[in-house]
Amino acid sequence: LANRIFGAQGTSIFESMSRLARETGSLNLGQGFPEGLEPAELIEAAVKALRDGPHQYPPMFGLPELRRAVAENSRRFQGIELDWEREVLVTSGATEALADTFLALLNDGDEVILFEPAYDAYATLIRRAGAIPVPVRLSPPDWALPREALERAITPRTRLIVVNNPMNPIGKVFDEAERAILAELAERHDLVIVADEVYEHLVFDDRAFVSLLAIPELRDRVVRIGSAGKTFSVTGWKVGYVSASPELLAPISRAHQYVTFTTPPALQAAVAAGLNLPDSYFEDLRRGLAARRDALFGGLLSAGFDVADAPATYFAIADISAFDPVGDDLSFCRRLTVEAKVTPVPVSAFYAERDVTSHVRFCFAKSFETLGEAVHRLARWR
Ligand code: PMP
Ligand code: GLN
């Protein structure tokens, strides 16, 4: 029997646009995955670990070397002090971390606030955990946190706020004033913040990124989620990690033990090596992605796209309102795929109501060759 909750979502937009891109020979700038950016040290560490083993179930919390590396990386970049034995859990991707967190912390009828445009997994997993997603919308052009709307959305049933920071698909980084609002409201209403920080290392132009877990008043209220897929450009590996106080992490680990129990040990060992790479790796990643962003931006602008600045993540969104005939964003993505052979994804997929149809999202974590070809095709199409 098809499940009401998952069935209602249909196939994820990333999967369906990737399939259309394959079928039409289009350049896929839709689904977020990098091209050719994975560090050689990480791959070598994985090869070595696969050759040498071990190959059996690692500890349920994750390999100690990876949990230490997660704690050490958080200390180095965010000044967060973590007890790696009680405050770090390894999961099979950030997606599993999200699922474990919702399964562990939510009861039937609880409410969870999320900010739209929101990554598509949140609402579906929240509903499947028996709870109710309550969207609060951010609006262009500045996508600021709307304090009043957020306060209005909080009820006695509110349990969690999901904050994706930096934020997919709009590339937003929450600023100091916004972080203060989140901290104030979480404390006042006794809420837990699920901080999906998978893009923590993809922040450009010397902009500051501060983890919500680094805010002293939030130290025991934040579940911080990271992903090796994003930090090391290996989205297929599905290695994630959760950091939280022992009181929050213990129930999450109990969910994890019945969802996947563990994650391939060779990949865990390699990700540990990756997290321990020197600062230069993380700086080069940021600089390399910023250069790719600029390459795609220049091309999109000269092809007539109205693109907004992207301070973080590997996504750029473009307002398509000026195109004639424009149709909705999904039909625009299909048309661009067929006519220009370049594929973005529609931003309406990040709204529960699918009613905001003015923007499409391009992924710029690609080779300069791919980006140059995309720009060439878009210019010819216009
Ligand atoms: N959260 C956000 C905001 C994402 O963009 C992604 C990646 N698509 C994930 C979570 C999932 O990460 P993972 O592949 O590690 O499950
Ligand atoms: N997070 C990726 C994106 O936003 C997609 C992940 C997926 O395909 N489910 O593009």
Automatic annotation (TrEMBL):
Residues 27-378 form the Aminotransferase class I/classII large domain. Keywords: Aminotransferase, Pyridoxal phosphate, Transferase. Pfam families: Aminotran_1_2. Its cofactor is pyridoxal 5'-phosphate. GO terms for molecular function: kynurenine-oxoglutarate transaminase activity; pyridoxal phosphate binding. SUPFAM superfamilies: PLP-dependent transferases (SSF53383). GO terms for cellular component: cytoplasm. InterPro entries: Aminotransferase_I/II_large, Kynurenine-oxoglutarate_AT, PyrdxlP-dep_Trfase, PyrdxlP-dep_Trfase_major, PyrdxlP-dep_Trfase_small. Belongs to the class-I pyridoxal-phosphate-dependent aminotransferase family. This is Aspartate/methionine/tyrosine aminotransferase. It comes from Rhizobium subbaraonis.
